[in-house]
Specification:
- The protein is mainly alpha-helical.
- Helix content is 35%, strand content 3%.
- It has five helices and two strands.
- The protein has helices at residues 2-14, 22-31, 83-108, 135-138, 146-158, and strands at 111-113, 123-125.
- A two-stranded antiparallel ribbon has the order 1-2.
- The model has no long low-confidence stretch (mean pLDDT 77).
- Residues 56-104 form the Transcription factor TFIID subunit 8 C-terminal domain.
- Residues 133-190 are annotated as: Disordered.
- InterPro entries: Histone-fold, TAF8, TFIID_su8_C.
- Its main location: nucleus.
């Protein structure tokens, strides 16, 4: 038994594997002059009749595969042409688009709270319509125009800077960045 194990391990390593398989053990036993029936390989299911190799192809080349492999193999999905399927797909895409848009507005717009004790749980999109709702997202907020810059300089000379606003209660405790209130960047002094 020890010799069979050693030999099968040697055949296994010779084949580049880590663990011996049944064939390694069978070869080791054949080498020890034992009569062993090799395992019978199951026949594969053949679909169609395989054509023979033409005369210009040598005999040692492998035979053609089953005809189902190369007669008709579609490489792309056929487009949907049924009216009901197209309508269902369009409806599901519209539903997904509406859901994504409402989530975007809920995360970026003003919110109302359902529960007065915890304003961060169950936020609702506010009902106040904006004249240009996406204009704020498109316009840069960190640039100052020359007229506003001059007006701000005059105000700063006349009055001292007000203290910075304190963060709202509970806003620092929120782990989800989409539910926190928006923090605008500080304006740099030039």
């Amino acid at each position: 038994m020890v010799e069979v194990g050693r030999s099968s391990r040697a055949y296994c390593e010779h084949a580049g594997r880590c663990e011996p398989i049944v064939n390694d053990v069978a070869i080791a036993m054949i080498e020890m002059v034992s009569k062993v029936k090799p395992p019978i390989q199951p026949k594969t299911l053949q679909a169609g009749i395989k054509p023979t190799l033409p005369s210009y192809i040598p005999d040692y080349y492998p035979p053609f595969p089953d005809p189902h492999a190369y007669i008709r193999t579609p490489t792309h999905k056929q487009p949907m042409t049924e009216y009901e399927g197209i309508r269902e797909k369009a409806a599901s895409q519209k539903r997904d688009l509406d859901r994504a848009l409402s989530r975007f507005i809920a995360k970026t717009g003003t919110k109302q709270a359902i529960l007065p004790d915890d304003p961060t749980s169950y936020p609702l999109v506010s009902c106040k319509p904006h004249p240009n709702p996406y204009l704020e997202a498109l316009l840069p907020k960190d640039q100052e125009f020359q007229e506003e810059d001059e007006a701000n300089k005059k105000k700063k000379k006349a009055a001292p800077e007000p203290p910075e606003p304190k963060p709202q209660e509970g806003s620092a405790d929120i782990d989800n960045p989409y539910l926190r209130s928006v923090k605008l960047p500080r304006k740099r002094k030039r």
